[in-house]
Amino acid sequence: MATTGRVAIVTGSSQGIGAAVAERLASDGWAVTVNYSGHAEPAQALAEKITATGGRAIAVRADVSDPAEVRQMFATTQQTFGGIDGLVNNAGIMKLAPLAETEDALFDRHVAVNLKGVFNCLREGARQIREGGRIVSFSSSVLGLYQPSYAAYAATKAGVEAMTHILAKELGPKRITVNAIAPGPVATKLFLDGKSEEQIAAMTRMMPMGRLAEPQDIAAAVAALLSPDMHWVSGQIVRANGGVV
Fold first, then answer.
1. For this structure, is 36 an active site residue?
2. DSSP letters of 68-130?
3. 17-39 per-position pLDDT tens digit
4. Which of 14, 86, 166, 228 sits CB 3.0–4.6 Å from 42 for a disulfide?
């Protein structure tokens, strides 16, 4: 596996889309920090898999909603690889409920992880990512579909998009691009959990291409945004959703 000398942190990357992104970046020659907040085993296994195939990876625990833990994750990445060139803000939660039935604790947790967590990482990335680097955060195509029961989740993703547009202007002088990717339905545990077969089938019928996305579909789009060829694309929201909206 050829190395590029570039280093990326991928938050929430022990499974699902984040794991696919980490693997894709490693295959493209990036050194990768595989971030997790819960069980260490999947993250360690992924880092070992990347290393076994000739890549460079470490697993680092950090709850992105905690600024101190985010700072330590960046410090560990710096100490291990000597710098940081990319950040992928993938960590997030999605617990659905009609707005009138959304408890304070559920709303607050969405804000803590999906919004404050991205803010914490963007702030640290703005301070530490090397000139010419890349930042990609995750929004959602829910912000085009506006489905019932997604109010808390969609609100946090709207905030992510706002920060993306603003930070792109602030980091332009350092030639750091800042974009967001907004997937549609993806066949991951995060999306499938709690949904009936009928709900999943109905969502699949909505897709113009006749299927849900796979994590690798989204990882390919993220990798494209982090590539050197995308140096003139910044402040954009890429709706990687197969044409559903």
1. no
2. HHHHHHHHHHHHHHS---EEEE---------GGG--HHHHHHHIIIIIIHHHHHHHHHHHHSP
3. 999 999 999 999 999 999 999 99
4. 14
